[in-house]
Structures are given as structure tokens and as C-alpha cells.
Amino acid sequence: MPKLLIAPSILSADFGKINEEIASISSHADMIHVDVMDGHFVPNITFGPDQIAKMRSTLPMDVHLMIEQPEKYLEEFAKAVEKAHGRRDDSYLTVHQESSVHLERLVQQIKGLGMKAAVALNPATPLVSIESLLGDIDMVLLMTVNPGFGGQSFIASVVPKIKELRAKAPDLNIQVDGGINEKTYRQAVEAGADILVAGSYVFGAKDRAAAIAALRK
Ligand code: DX5
Ligand code: ZN
């Protein structure tokens, strides 16, 4: 199984000082998780490529696209990551399985842009829907909440899906996102997750470094 990585989600950070917020966790975390929401795929709106381009991150970026028709915007997001981070080849664009009927095409598009390609599954979406793609992608994101908002509760019924995926793909990066904190992370890690996204738990903590360290225990 790959080494455990922590990816704080900036959805719960203070956007009035986003680059200070990113800097506050950069020497403790492994990736920055960036949640893009369009008000259609999920009932919330965040930001787009122009705002990402103005971010500054020394850590690889992990852009979680909760949007309809992602194919229209992938190139803009790839350029934005390069502006924010100085390179794009170590960073992910994650598209939702539920957002496209041509998922394989999206994966190839992301790879063609020189980025790592990942696919996200909502809690109710079964693994069989992406089985044919497992050899082509760099990461699977298993949502442990219904996407749209930070601060929701971990859905424990996703844990068997993490186990099933780990059994099928021993070397794959398996990311979990939603409701991860010091009480829930262990179930996900024991089931086989190796990349933990945590938003409200990290950015809401008095001591962010300690909160991140607690997820590595
Ligand atoms: C939810 C987002 C998550 C969110 C997680 O739709 O995809 O990345 O920021 O927030 P917490 O960790 O607070 O559940
Ligand atoms: Zn996310």
C-alpha cells in the first residue's frame, strides 16, 4: 500500500487570506485539496480557474471537480495549477464518475494535459462503474460524504467499498474525502485508504500542525 498522505481541503479555510492559510499547513501536509463546485453538480458554488491561478502552493495540488461538463474546463484548470504551483505534473485533476458518460475520454484528456488523473465516486456509486479504468488512473477518490459542503458526518457504509477497492488494486492511490477527523480516519486507513482529505478538522483546529499529525498516528 502507498505511503499515507494528508491533503487538507481549503474549502474550510479563510478565503480572505487564502495564501496565508495555505502557507499555514504547507510544511505539515502533503497536498492541497481544492474543491471546485458549480451549483449544478452539487448544491454549492466555490471558485474557478482564475481564483486557483492566484493561489500560491509549494505542495502539489489536488483539484476536485464537482462540476458538470468537466471536459470544457480541464485545460483551464491545468493552466491554473501550473500558475499556482509552478508545475502541473505532480498534481491531480479529479473528475466525478457521475459527471460524464465518457469517463475514459476525460481521463485521457487529463493525462494529455500532463496531469495525474483521478476519478471520484459519490457514496452511492458502485466500484463496478470504474473497474475497467483502474489500470489507467492515478487515484480513486471515494467520497465519504455526499459532496457539496464541508463539515458533514463521515458515512461509515463506504468503508466496505474502500476495502473492496484495496483488494482489487494493491498499489492504487485511494483517497477518502468527507468527515475525516481524529475519530474517523482510522477506519478509512485500516480499510486501505492512503490519502486523507480533511477540511473542517484541519482548518478548524487551534493547532493545525497537531491536527495533521494526529491523522498520521
Ligand atoms: C465536500 C468536499 C470536501 C470537503 C471536506 O464536498 O469535497 O473536500 O471540503 O470537508 P470536511 O473534511 O469538513 O468533511
Ligand atoms: Zn473534496
Describe the structure.
With 217 residues, the protein is of the alpha/beta class. The protein has a single domain (5-214), classed as Aldolase class I (TIM Barrel), CATH 3.20.20.70. It contains 8 helices and 8 strands, in the order βαβαβαβαββαβαβαα. The protein has helices at residues 18-26, 49-53, 74-85, 103-112, 159-168, 185-191, 200-203, 208-214, and strands at residues 5-8, 32-37, 61-66, 92-96, 116-121, 139-143, 173-177, 195-198. Strands 1-8-7-6-5-4-3-2 form an 8-stranded parallel β-sheet. Helix 3 links the parallel strand 3 and strand 4. Helix 5 packs parallel to helix 6. It is globular and about 40 Å long. It starts with a strand and ends with a helix. Bound molecules: D-xylitol-5-phosphate and zinc ion (ZN). The site of zinc ion has 6 residues, from strand 2.
